[in-house]
Design brief:
There is one protein chain. The protein is built from eight helices and ten strands. By secondary structure, it is α/β, with parallel strands linked by helices. A ten-stranded mixed β-sheet has the order 1-9-10-8-2-7-3-4-5-6, sandwiched between helices. Helix 1 crosses helix 2. The protein starts with 6 loop residues before the first strand and ends with a strand. 35% of the residues are buried. The structure holds NADP nicotinamide-adenine-dinucleotide phosphate (NAP).
Length: 248
């Protein structure tokens, strides 16, 4: 049995005692408007990965919140780079989380949405082939689909050369996918920031220095800075910080 590392609220507050899943769910919530929430884990010095993977930065408390955020969303949006590199599997939720979703009028599972300009995707990858809900791929007008891809996913073509993310998100909302959770990676986060489409960032800061080498959690061309007020700070007994920044 895995040992749970207690998570406390450090700000605003402090609240009493370790937070249970019900309290954490309420703290993150779904909000009452369509929104795009981005979730990342980083080191103190801002690395996107340790030894090339995010797993080295993540621990049990981060995985716990990561799972709760998946439970709360209508669709899980991920860039093709991260899907390929991290070997994404089909989105699964345990029975407690599936029951929570049904009780709140949500589909049993969130829909996986992949952003890929090139359509360099493997239809046999478990994230696509074994998905409990037919995934959506946001892509460009001119990308050629590999054999088998349209058998496992819906293609939404928006934009020439690059995916027009605002148009893509509008199409997701037209399909009833209002609460979007983006799990990265950095190029997609950079493009979403540039297009001013990010409503919320949930950031786990692991208490370690990764040192030089790894990239940041955002990448791409420079653009204007965006204000994103702090909403809460959680801290774990092993020194991990979990920040939630969101627009009103
Ligand atoms: N620390 C964390 O929480 C975290 C989270 C996620 C990922 N990561 C790390 O990030 C690294 C992967 O990063 P990455 O450089 O591959 O970036 P990425 O953003 O994961 O993927 C970039 C790819 O996604 C597609 N894409 C993204 N934005 C697009 C847009 N606006 N239009 C069209 N296509 C778009 C393109 O795919 P196509 O090539 O198919 O066109 C592009 O090549 C890995 O090391 C991973 O471990 C860390």
């Amino acid at each position: 049995m895995s040992v749970r590392i207690p998570i406390h609220r450090a700000w605003p507050g402090p609240a009493d005692g370790p937070l249970d899943d019900e309290t954490l769910t309420a703290l993150y919530g779904r909000g009452d408007r369509p929104r795009l929430r981005v979730n990342f884990v980083t080191s103190i010095d801002g690395a996107v990965a340790l030894d090339d993977y995010s797993a080295g930065l993540s621990g049990e408390p981060d995985k716990r919140v990561f799972g709760l955020l998946r439970m709360l969303c209508d669709a899980l949006v991920v860039a093709a780079g991260t899907l390929r590199h991290e070997g994404y599997r089909a989105v699964r939720l345990d029975e407690t989380r599936r029951a929570w979703r049904r009780a709140h009028g949500l589909a049993t599972y969130p829909t996986l949405v992949v952003v890929s300009g090139s359509l360099r995707l493997d239809p046999a990858q478990a994230a696509l082939a074994d998905a409990p809900v037919r995934p959506v791929v946001l892509t460009t007008d001119d990308a050629t689909a590999p054999a088998g891809l349209t058998e496992v996913a819906d293609l939404v073509r928006c934009g020439t050369g690059r995916v027009d993310l605002a148009a893509g998100l509008a199409e997701l909302r037209r399909r009833g996918l209002h609460h979007l959770l983006c799990e990265g990676g950095p190029q997609l986060f950079g493009a979403l920031t540039a297009a001013d489409l990010v409503d919320e960032v949930c950031l786990t800061v692991a208490p370690l220095l990764a040192g030089p080498g790894a990239g940041r959690i955002t990448a791409g061309s420079a653009g204007p800075a965006r204000d994103l007020p702090l909403r809460h700070v959680l801290a774990t007994d092993d020194g991990v910080l979990m920040l939630r920044h969101a627009r009103d």
